[in-house]
Amino acid sequence: MTERSAFSGGDQAYLRDVQYGTGAKLDVRSHLHRAYSTSPVPLATFEARLVDWSGRVEVLECGCGTGRFWETSELSRSIDVTLTDLSPGMVDEAMARARANGFDRVTGQAVDVQSLPFDDGSFDVVVANHMLYHVPDPDRGVAEIARVLRPDGVALVATNGYGHMKEINEALAEVFGSHAEGLYEVFGIDTGEARLRERFASVVWHAFDNDLVVDEPQAVIDYGLSFPPGEFATDDQRVAFDAAVRARFTGGRLRIRTRAGVFVCTRARRRD
After folding, report:
1. Residue 188: which residues within 8 A CB-CB, separation 6 or more?
2. 204 and 187 Cβ atoms separated by less than 8 Å
3. Is the pTM of this model over 0.85?
4. 149-160 and 123-129: which strand pairing?
5. Where residue 149 sits, what CATH number does that domain have?
6. The domain containing residue 137 runs over which residues?
7. Could you tell me if residue 219 is inside a domain?
8. pLDDT per position as a tens digit, 226-255
9. How far apart are CA 237 and CA 243, in angstroms?
10. Which of 121, 230, 243, 252 is found 20 to 30 A from 75 (Cα to Cα)?
11. Alpha carbons 45 and 40: distance in angstroms, whole number
């Protein structure tokens, strides 16, 4: 893949200042997942349960977004939390959410995952959720995550794969034509695993089974208009997308297929 869209890492200024300048657009998307989930537990809880947290005291999150990971009750509130994101606005929101959820030892700063300002072996756990497909050089990002982990450290890396949110993507394609953002070519389930195996001796995928059953079309419409190409839709395109979404509801409901999960990565390989 030779050309990257702005959304899939081609324009960091757009990602920092427009798409993720605040948590508003991300919250629209996370609302759909949280409100209409069929999973018995949210992703953060599912993910936290993949790690033995005993003795894990220093945790870094890269691409923290609005800090939803820190809402889970699975984590000790005594751990040291370092929150980072390309967007200063996201860091501020994530720090506020972590503190509101009982984490007192929280610091944060706006940094690029491709160049983390931390010493080698600084953290017991590094979390990178649904963000490496936004990074211009995801291999550098993975290398930095491996570098800052301690020898017995764990990296938790969440991503999606082809077919994720298929029903919304089909409605977008109906209105906007081809709109492939290239996210999964950059860092999806298959491509992400290959990149991670360059830096970790053990990489294990854990699928998160969580189709969405939605009974409110507006929630789907808002989701599709929160990122390109829907983000820049004309008035006529918005009307057409509204109709395309509503036409997909049967009996007042729409089942949206998801394909997401978490890589648990250990035994980091450090290279010069």
Report:
1. 133, 159, 160, 161, 162
2. no
3. yes
4. parallel
5. 3.40.50.150
6. 6-161+179-209+258-267
7. no
8. 999 999 999 999 999 999 999 999 999 999
9. 10
10. 121
11. 10
For residue 33, the one-letter residue type is H
- Average pLDDT, rounded, for the chain: 95
In terms of DSSP bridges, do strands 200-208 and 260-268 run parallel, antiparallel, or are they unpaired?
Answer: antiparallel
Sign of the alpha-carbon dihedral angle for 165, 169, 172, 176 = positive
Q: Please give the full DSSP string across 89-146, using - where no structure is assigned.
A: HHHHHHHHHHHHTT--SEEEEE--GGG--S-TT-EEEEEEES-GGG-SSHHHHHHHHH
Q: According to the model, what pLDDT value does residue 110 have? A: 98
Domain count, the chain: 1
Place of tokens 């764990």: 154
Question: pLDDT digit string (tens) for 98-154?
Answer: 999 999 999 999 999 999 999 999 999 999 999 999 999 999 999 999 999 999 999
Helices (H) and strands (E) in the chain, counts: 10, 9
- Furthest CA-CA distance within the chain: 58
